[in-house]
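Take a specimen:
=====
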Amino acid sequence: MSHDTDVLVLGGAGVDTIVYVPELPLPYADSYMIDSGIRTRAGQTGDFVAVGLSSLGLRTHHVDFLGEDPEGDLVRALHGEHGIALTAIPQPAGTKRAVNLVGPDGRRLSLYDTSRGHAEDRLPEETVRALADASRHVHVSITQPCAHALPTLRDAGATLSTDLHNWDGENPYHESFAYASDVVFLSTAALDDPERTMRRIAERGRAEVVVATAGAEGAYLLTDGELSHVPPVRPAVPVVDSNGAGDAFAAAFLYGRLTGEPPHRCALYGAVAGAHACTVPSTRTAPIGRDELIERAAAFEGS
């Protein structure tokens, strides 16, 4: 079958307001002076994955709810700048937004505005099916409208990936995403026993690959029943911000998978891209390109 799109990204569009704070957790005070400025820019998880995929040369299409508001205009402009096709479903409640507090070590605390959506929100089934039929692969954000789209995506025969982010392995909300996807990403941050959770995902669902990222410790890869450690890649310049590192990892991993690389090399691509993302301030969008990704991965393997 011929496909017009390599990866359809479902959900995760929005804007973040970035505030660099002197420390996290931030002690209570009446006020703080933020000398670096407070900036709002387009880019939540789906946006970052889409931009990362596009920068690696994959034909990318993004679909989500957007408001007719200044925040929605920022998201539309980001996709236009990167040549990413965008299907915007009108959202009367407005475009999703969040505030990210970023500490000196690059860690962040995100505050999400949950008023920009409703429990009854649904992505149009006919739109989702048509876009999935035209795509080689679908990456699904863990937003509520995307959960309702999972049966349609499976009926369309699409291969799926998802990022469970900081799932604790217990919250049932994440399970439908975890068990419906062929490739599952998650963080070890909230997991007492990452291997147990990874194996449960593989046993109960359809995942061929499960990847748990562990920040500066690297990542863990489960494929064909074998668990292995993916060593961390040292960034070329100092770490300034961890925001978007997981999205960069997922995008580069999917690039490797869709270009026929084995899982361990896909994970190396992810580690290289995630390390690069940590060197880019949240106020900028500068994902790694394909040539640089391949060169850095080869250099790491030869070191």
In short: The first helix runs from residue 45 to 55.
